[in-house]
């Protein structure tokens, strides 16, 4: 089986439906690792314990290594006078104070983090919590505090006074490093306060979600759109499947190894992933429909190529980024919040994401090999992204003038860049926007003002010009 893999993207040549090799189509498959490993990586990335645990291990190793160095230099008492020249009681006092302060710092950081997560969940959206949990700066600061505490304890147990059984030992280098870690922790705490104050801002949260979604779009849709494909290969569904694989546990479909599924679909085999990537599947619910002759080993390989996680991720689900931005906008437009400006900020980023997607080739859900359709994986198309980005905000933002004007500016701009075959959904959205304005504004002047596209939403904004 031939495949050509370069720079993490796997391209498989596909013959035409008749079997002739006059033209080969190429499609992109996910070759970035086993889906289960991707799911595990995402869980570790969004955990508050993994990075601090690594810091703790490093602190234990560093403490043991420096104490060994101190033992090696203990034969020359004056060699480290410039590092620490106090008594063993003084060393114990310094290390005890550092340990107690680090414990206090750690508890304070945990409290601030939990408070920020609660505020973000209640004011923006519960989906944005993963953005804070993935923040490496927060994890590193917490790890530094815990590591300093553990390092201090490791060194403290090595400080000994002179007795009949033991000789006096002061790990001078280790005490000096512990003091340096304390200073670094104080600086990290000041940085942490400033970082969290910036991170809780709606504009920062929106920008972070947008950045992650841009990376997902670049990864999932790397090819620019030259022209839409002609007659796409049809996946035959005129006969019932011979078997259906059930989900072994409930959760979201977070990853699919399409290449492994194709490898399993040999001979007369065909398969369809029933839920889309990002969909929730209940335990024992239909997961994969199978056609052809399948044995247990092949069916198990299909099941292992599909990862089910606790929540959606952006690894293979760019629509999740759209979903988070829409949630922020809808929450801002709720009667209890009534913050249309934040909704416009979310629309700004959605505009950019739609503009990027409008000119990119979205792979067909049907995957073929050896001239036959083998695999059907449902994924969002261009129309789905447009409806996802705009419909709920348009409905929630009725009678919000700046929201309607911003949506109109988005649609007119997309009409200028989207290929003709992708413009029907944009015109449909414009018609729905006009109908919403008719219902929301009985006054003719208000309707006329709502019909003016604006890149900033309010009346002082520059109107969208043709070709802009």
Estimated structural class:
alpha+beta
Element order, helices and strands?
EEEHHHHHHHEEHEEEHEHHEEHHHH
Largest sheet: spatial strand order: 4-8-6-11-10
Shape: flat
Mean of residue pLDDT values: 81
If helices are DSSP runs of H or I spanning 4 or more residues, what is the number of helices?
15
How would you describe the overall organization of this protein?
The chain is of the alpha+beta class. Among the domains are: 44-200, no CATH class; 398-468, no CATH class. The protein is 53% helix and 11% strand. It has helices spanning 35-45, 50-73, 88-123, 129-133, 136-156, 172-199, 202-220, 258-264, 296-304, 319-332, 340-358, 382-396, 401-417, 424-440, 444-450, and strands spanning 4-6, 9-14, 25-30, 243-246, 251-256, 270-273, 280-281, 286-291, 306-309, 366-369, 372-377. A hairpin with a 2-residue loop joins strand 1 and strand 2 (9-14). The longest helix is centred in the N-terminal third of the chain and has 36 residues, at 88-123. It is flat. 37% of the residues are buried. Mean pLDDT is 81; it is low at 1-33, 226-232 and 461-468.
Task: From the structure above, extract its key features.
468 residues; alpha+beta; 5-stranded mixed beta sheet; 15 helices; 11 strands; disordered C terminus
At a glance:
The protein has helices at 35-45, 50-73, 88-123, 129-133, 136-156, 172-199, 202-220, 258-264, 296-304, 319-332, 340-358, 382-396, 401-417, 424-440, 444-450; strands at residues 4-6, 9-14, 25-30, 243-246, 251-256, 270-273, 280-281, 286-291, 306-309, 366-369, 372-377.
